[in-house]
Amino acid sequence: MSMAGAPLAIAAVLLAAGSSRRFGTANKLLADAGGMPLVRCVALALRASRVAEIVAVTGPDAEAVKRALEGLGIRFVHNA
Predict the structure, then answer these.
(1) Distances from the Cα of 73 to the Cα of 24, 33, 40, 49, angstroms
(2) What rounded mean pLDDT belongs to the chain?
(3) Which of 3, 4, 53, 74 lies in disulfide reach of 11, CB 3.0 to 4.6 Å?
(4) Dihedral of the alpha carbons of 43, 46, 52, 57, in degrees to the nearest 10
(5) Number of Cβ atoms within 10 Å of the Cβ of 33
(6) Rounded to 5 degrees, what are φ and ψ at 53?
(7) In DSSP terms, which residues pair with 53 in a beta bridge?
(8) Are 75 and 58 in contact (CB under 8 A)?
(9) Which pLDDT does position 2 carry in this prediction?
(10) Cα-based angle 44, 47, 50 (whole degrees, multiple of 5)
């Protein structure tokens, strides 16, 4: 709660712009983790925290990351 009693609007930044060089040839964000891409598991945990907004910063494989996060109401920003 803020000083005035109104709830705070907190956003989460999901950093999904890495190139996964140490992971091998695959993008670790898209690796299977319990039947879904790892990046989606992280986004679901953020959503469960009840943050007001999730902003995902994408990089390589941006379109695949966006597909993995479909339906979660996430805003995307691309980091070239």
Answers:
(1) 30, 21, 12, 14
(2) 88
(3) 53
(4) -50
(5) 14
(6) -155, 150
(7) 11
(8) no
(9) 55
(10) 155
- 5 token code pair: 């009693």
E runs forming strands in 1-80: 11-16, 53-58, 75-78
Summarize the confidence of residues 42-53 as an average pLDDT. 93
pTM for the model stands at 0.83
The residue count for the chain: 80
Strands (E), 17-52: none
- Long-range contacts at 46-50 (CB < 8 A, ≥ 24 apart): 46/12, 46/14, 47/72, 49/12
